[in-house]
Amino acid sequence: MSSSTHIPTRPERQSEAAKSAVAGGVTAITRNARMSAAKGRPLARACRGLKAADALKIVEFSPKKAAQILRQTILSAIANAKNNHGVSEPGEMFVKICVFDESVRVRRFWPTARGSAHPIARRLCHCKVVLTQAK
């Protein structure tokens, strides 16, 4: 057998590809955050449809744990827009999609009387933010 196998390389980025990606949206995902998705959904609903800068203001003044996770994801999406897609003003982009989805559950068992056990499910979630130019 020949040892000269071809390894495909990543294609060069082009400005047209970057423009089409921005038109479809700039995505950032925080995976496996140690929180229930139901606790983050009201905050995500409040940020949907706002400018990224306004969504950050809402999130920064919220005392919830979900606010910290959502803030990190929005900042990551802004950085992706600026660095990967060449957007000059990423703070002016709109939050098109902002969702908390369920992830896997870490299963534990709590020992109880007479040798039995109660199951405990520690829930994790994914946070996804998509920014677009148009509302």
Describe this structure in words.
With 135 residues, the chain is of the alpha+beta class. It has one domain (26-132): Alpha-Beta Complex (Ribosomal Protein L22, Chain A), CATH 3.90.470.10. Helix content is 36%, strand content 31%. It is built from four helices and three strands. It has helices at residues 15-24, 37-47, 52-60, 65-83; strands at residues 26-33, 94-111, 117-132. Strands 1-3-2 form a three-stranded antiparallel β-sheet. Strand 2 and strand 3 (117-132) form a beta hairpin. Helix 3 (52-60) packs antiparallel against helix 4 (65-83). The longest helix has 19 residues, at 65-83. It is elongated, with a radius of gyration of 20 Å. The model has no long low-confidence stretch (mean pLDDT 87).
Any chance you could write out the topology, listing elements then pairs?
Elements: H1 15-24, E1 26-33, H2 37-47, H3 52-60, H4 65-83, E2 94-111, E3 117-132
Antiparallel strand pairs: 1-3, 2-3
Helix pairs in contact: 2-4, 3-4
